[in-house]
Amino acid sequence: MPTYISKEGLQELRDEFEKRKTLVRREIAEQISSAKELGDLSENFEYHDAKERQGLNEARIVQLESMINDAVIVEKTEGGSDIDLGTTFVAESGGEEKTFQVVGSTEADPMAGKISNESPIGQAFIGHKVGEKVEITVPSGAIVYTIKEIK
Predict the structure, then answer these.
(1) pTM of the model
(2) How many structural domains compose the chain?
(3) What is the C-alpha to C-alpha distance for residues 56 and 67, in angstroms, rounded to an integer?
(4) 3-class secondary structure, 39
(5) Based on the domain organization, do 44 and 105 belong to the same domain?
């Protein structure tokens, strides 16, 4: 499955991947080695904790590698007539305007206005044009947005 991501986001994934493969792996290996020197491994909290963190780190490395290999770069789009992946736009609801950007799921940050193309909100906006109304159902009810501008 493709990972839709910006050039900057892909670089962040690559940086985390390299850090985890080198620095984090080495730190955990040193902690395991130190913990082994303490003796009985069956009751050694430090050893079991380090082994658990090692497993989590290795799982994240595999996940990052997959995301990097499946990355599809999304260019920020400017202008255009309708909303799509990479589009930044302004929408108004209840007299309040909000700026959103449709991004891939790995870069989603709703508090910063970055909405995933896979989320119900992102999917609701995709394909719509300036002036159109979009109704989004949320747990507290329905919100109606009017698209004011595509940047």
Answers:
(1) 0.74
(2) 2
(3) 16
(4) coil
(5) no
What is the Cα–Cα distance from 60 to 55, expressed in whole angstroms? 9
Asked whether residue 82 is assigned to any structural domain, the reply reads no
Q: What does pLDDT average to over the chain?
A: 92
Quickly state the pLDDT bin for 35 (edges 50, 70, 90): confident
Distance CA 26, CA 89 (A): 44
CATH of residue 14: 1.10.287.180
Task: Give the DSSP per-residue string, 67-130.
Answer: HHHTEEE-PPB-S-SB--TTBEEEEEETTEEEEEEEE-GGG-BGGGTEEETTSHHHHHHTT-BT
CATH of the domain at 124: 3.10.50.30
